[in-house]
Write a structure and sequence with these properties.
The structure holds two protein chains of two kinds. Helices cover 32% and strands 23% of the residues of chain A. Chain A has six helices and nine strands. By secondary structure, chain B is α+β, with helices and mostly antiparallel strands. In chain B, strands 2, 3, 4 and 5 form a four-stranded antiparallel beta sheet that branches. The chains are: A alpha+beta, B alpha+beta. At the A-B interface, strand 1, helix 1, helix 4, strand 3 and strand 4 of A face strand 1, helix 1, strand 3, strand 5 and strand 6 of B.
């Protein structure tokens, strides 16, 4: 997947074995779902060696979730690539973070988070016994955060494009409007839900934040090219430290 | 409190890197849109300016930007990187943005500003920029060889 995964467990009885099990899980998922691996199950499906109907339970579940998400986002979330192959990574990421967190929760851990490439599933509270403070990264400065969301069990996912400095354009989308979205953060009931809707809403551009506004149980903070952030009407309840 | 960061992602990245660099190795290619490439020279006798970059257009490796593959082409002219073009780019939905006829509520807006309060975790999209750097680094490695 090519992204850093961080697991922090506050509960004192966490040991190395716990972390190994979580990371082994992510490795196994990557072996199965990476479209970059010749031996992965998804590659076998894309090559026509394996029929989707004959795939593993886990694969069929993911493909079903992809279909469901495509429907729920009016087609904005689509795992079919221009070549006609399937790339379910947009679902696998959030889903695997969520599953890893569920695994820790079932083990009885009460204070932890799982973070994969800036998409986060927290649980309970931080080392100080307070809500987890999640900074939303400044798209123009990696070292800065421009907003802080305080969450206990909600998933926080950010989609975006942080590219600048060089003369760059997107040849497939030259007519993208000037108010292009740089960073789209969604807070949802869990990271699976937050991540899939963040991906779809980001693809919708300016309309994305209105899409989240209409979605019960979800809030969004979206930063455009002009460094203006638009937030959904319930977002601010997450910005208070004592929430 | 224990905190572990997974070191094996590096292995995953390099796995993909090796795969694609072997596929893409060799001759630089000139995409149709590359107008600034001059002759796209691959001639080893061409003058190599002090930067060590040879003129030409070099396709980087296809890297996983998680929302889809990313690949860039580095265009080197007079020994300098003059342009970077996207050959593959994620978030390309291939669909026009749907015009919504519903009346939308006015949502609160603010200018972003750096926050000084401490945070436990940071949420942000790093994938695209990382994939971009990888693909570009691979393209530039070809320009130097």
């Amino acid at each position: 997947m090519g992204m850093p995964i961080t697991v922090e467990i506050v509960d004192p009885y966490a040991n190395e074995k716990t972390f190994d099990e979580v990371f082994d899980y992510f490795m196994r998922i990557d072996e199965k779902f990476s479209t970059y691996k010749e031996a992965s199950e998804i590659t076998a499906i894309n090559k026509g060696i394996l029929k989707a109907d004959d795939a593993s339970d886990e694969m069929r579940l993911i493909l079903a979730l992809c279909e469901e998400t495509k429907r729920e986002t009016n087609g904005y979330f689509d795992i079919k690539t221009p070549k006609g192959t399937l790339d379910p990574s947009g679902i696998v990421k959030g889903w695997s973070i969520w599953q890893a967190a569920e695994f820790l929760r079932e083990k009885g851990f009460k204070k932890f988070y799982v973070d994969a490439g800036g998409d986060i599933q927290p649980h309970g509270s931080n080392a100080e016994g307070a809500a987890w403070a999640v900074g939303i990264k400044n798209p123009w400065n990696e070292a800065e955060h421009v907003k802080i969301a305080y969450v206990h069990d909600e998933g926080v996912a950010t989609s975006g494009t942080y590219i600048r400095g060089l003369h760059i354009y997107n040849p497939r989308n030259e007519n993208r409007p000037a108010d292009e979205i740089m960073s789209f953060t969604v807070i949802g009931p869990n990271i699976y839900e937050a991540d899939r809707f963040a991906t779809a809403a980001f693809a919708m551009g300016r309309e994305g934040v209105q899409f989240i506004e209409r979605l019960p149980g979800f809030e969004a903070y979206c930063i455009d090219k002009n460094k203006i952030a638009t937030m959904t009407s319930g977002f601010e309840k997450y910005t208070r430290a004592n929430a | 409190m224990k905190k572990y960061i997974l070191p094996i992602v590096i292995v995953v990245v390099f796995g993909a890197y090796a795969l694609f660099s072997s596929k893409n190795s060799g001759t630089p290619t000139t995409p149709g849109t590359a107008t600034s490439t001059g002759t796209g020279s691959t001639d080893n006798t061409a003058e190599t300016p002090p930067s060590g970059l040879k003129d030409g257009t070099y396709n980087g490796s296809v890297t996983d930007a998680f929302y889809g593959p990313m690949q860039v082409a580095a265009i080197v002219k007079n020994g300098k990187l003059v342009d970077v073009q996207f050959l593959k780019f994620p978030n390309d939905q291939g669909e026009s943005i749907e015009v919504n006829s519903r009346s939308n509520p006015i949502l609160k807006q603010e200018a972003i500003a750096a926050q000084s309060a401490n945070v436990n975790i940071v949420s942000g999209a790093t994938q695209s920029s990382e994939a971009f750097s990888q693909s570009l680094a691979q393209a530039l490695a070809q320009a130097q060889s």
